[in-house]
Structure to design on (188 residues):
């Protein structure tokens, strides 16, 4: 008897790294500030690129950005920026590198203001619960919503960079604020 492969969202293709990310992380609610910062940094790096490009460099980013320790990244200096500009394990874009450092400082500010970044972020959701969408095909999933518009607008007003509404919606998907796994998906 021929076994069919489990149904997955079409965007993760046959790439083992993408499948692992899809099955184990994407759409799963994240409340830990350390992981929320990691995704904030990675999503900002992804701007204008494919997610698989960043996913393949994730360990390079982990090494380059102090294991995603927000306090260490916030303390990076001009010398660190130059070090990162020469690091082939990451996307060497000065604007994105500076944004990651600036965003780390702002992230800490939100932690101080709200008790945690998680408290701030999840506070945008009704009852602080993830949104579950129902799509039959991954291409029906939106690239932005009124909620991503609102979060992005607030974060940009606070000074965050590389966090427009499209990146914000991808961040919401990655951190499980919204579950856009298609109907019948093995990871839904």
């Amino acid at each position: 008897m021929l076994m069919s492969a489990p149904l997955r969202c079409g965007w993760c293709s046959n790439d083992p790294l993408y499948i692992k990310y899809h099955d184990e992380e994407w759409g799963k609610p994240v409340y830990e500030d350390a992981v929320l910062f990691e995704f904030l940094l990675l999503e900002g790096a992804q701007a204008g690129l494919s997610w698989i490009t960043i996913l393949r460099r994730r360990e390079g980013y982990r090494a380059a950005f102090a294991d995603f320790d927000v306090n260490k990244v916030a303390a990076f200096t001009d010398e660190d920026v130059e070090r990162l500009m020469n690091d082939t394990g990451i996307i060497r874009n000065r604007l994105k590198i500076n944004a990651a450092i600036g965003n780390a400082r702002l992230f800490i500010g939100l932690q101080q203001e709200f008790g945690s970044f998680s408290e701030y972020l999840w506070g945008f959701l009704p009852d602080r619960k993830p949104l579950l969408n129902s799509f039959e095909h991954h291409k029906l999933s939106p690239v932005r919503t009124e909620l991503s518009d609102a979060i992005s607008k607030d974060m940009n007003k606070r000074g965050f960079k590389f966090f427009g509404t499209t990146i914000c919606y991808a961040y919401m998907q990655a951190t499980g604020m919204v579950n856009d796994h298609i109907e019948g998906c093995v990871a839904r």
User: Anything to note?
Assistant: The mean pLDDT is 93. The first strand starts at residue 131 and ends at 132. The beta strands are 131-132, 178-179.
